Amino acid sequence: MQNGFYQAVGAMVTQFNRLNTISNNLANVNTTAYKKDALVIGDFLSVLKHKRDELPLQNNTKDSAKFLNRSLDRVPHVVRNYINFSLGGMKKTGNPLDVAFKKPDRFFLVKTPDGIKMTQDGSFVLNSKGELSTKEGYEILGTNYFKDKQPISIPANSTIHISSNGTIYANKQEIGKLYIAKYNNNLSNLKKDGNNLYNISNLNDISLSNDGNDISEGFLESSNVNPVSEMVGLIQTNRLVEMYQKVISSQMNDLDNDAINRLASTKA
Question: Which residues partner with 207 through β-bridges?
């Protein structure tokens, strides 16, 4: 088998992964507080050097790796995917239940059927019970949740105000405070869980923010996806896929011709 075929297939698979990432970013360009996904693409050799010590062949992996075909070492692979947590633009809504973070490492805590998750989407609503929740119906947690397990209830027909430190007022009376979580580890460790939520692997990774100036009321954070740059990336990726497809077709034609010539020259 010609090595060029492997190289082209590996490169095409990598570009398909990039295409999926870009498509998902573009699909969420209007999603509140959405953070774009990004890929780091490297060659196969760099991936191998990083991972070979973790492979099960403890005595042979390093030595056998020396005999890899060098023409395959430069096949591009997705080395790493990560979330870009840079802040998006602020959009004024005037709605007192809309809040936006001023810092990229702050999150609201929400209660879901699968446990406590984090989100940066501050477009809150009141459910049928008058409790503060997300648009998907997930309960927004307050600072007292881990003590009394009670939701944040808003009195009917009251004037709401949420201060910059997350304190909630109804008719100028304090009724609760949002749990504004500060993520203490590397943000790149976070994983998305759908519905603009992020998983928390360990509650010890977060702490209650005491900065006092974390959010802006009456604003929503826009997605940090730049549609122009994503469209440019989409066009580039499509062109690369077409190029690799032509390379694969050329390689297959060479293989077919080689097989035909070998068979034709074989003596009975």
Answer: 182
The reported pLDDT for the residue numbered 188 is 81
Instruction: Based on the fold, state whether residues 182 and 203 are members of the same structural domain.
Output: yes
For the chain, how many structural domains are there in total?
Answer: 2
Task: Report residue 32's pLDDT band, with 50, 70 and 90 as the boundaries.
Answer: very high
pLDDT tens, 114-149? 999 999 999 999 998 999 999 999 999 999 998 999
Give the separation between CA 117 and CA 36, rounded to whole angstroms: 19
Rounded Cα distance, 239 and 261, in Å: 33
Q: Please give the residue range of the domain that contains residue 107.
A: 90-221
41 and 100: one domain? no
Query: pTM, whole model, 2 decimals?
Result: 0.79
